[in-house]
Amino acid sequence: QVQLVESGGGLVQPGGSLGLSCAASGFTFSSYAMSWVRQAPGKGLEWVSIIDSGGDNTDYADSVKGRFTISRDNAKNTLYLQMNSLKPEDTAVYYCATQGTLLAGTRHFGSWGQGTQVTVSS
Asked: Phi and psi at residue 29, in whole multiples of 5°?
């Protein structure tokens, strides 16, 4: 069965950096686009970034553009999110998910990981 396991979350000061990983198994990772999605306390889900199956094309939410970088290693079945210049408003549980296709203005995801907490605070 599909398994997505995020890691790398933690507490970081504003302006700091953090790297997240998502280990995938149970499916052909290299055939799927992958996304990062986050949920801040008391708020709904917010799509963060997407990368295509080959890692050649990426897209970002305006809120993280220029600060976050999504990447993948298909040989290791692993998705990454490098987060720089972190702000308190980046505090959230971060999830990796398969797909994230944009259809009629809505993102459509497949499977989800359990999430990892990122807290940006001094």
From this structure: -55, -40
Average pLDDT per block of 10 residues along the chain, 122 residues long: 96 98 97 97 96 96 98 98 98 96 88 97 95
The 3-state DSSP class for residue 63 equals coil
Is the separation of the CB atoms in 32 and 78 below 8 Å? no
Residue 61 identity (one-letter amino acid): A
Which residue's structure tokens are 């290693």? 73
DSSP bridge pairs for 56: none
The CA-based dihedral angle spanning residues 120, 63, 84, 73, taken in that order and rounded to the nearest 10 degrees:
110
User: What is the per-residue DSSP string for 100-118?
Assistant: EEEETTEEEEEEE---EEE
Give the angle subtended at the CA of 37 by the CAs of 61 and 18, to the nearest 5°: 85
Question: SS3 for 8?
Answer: coil
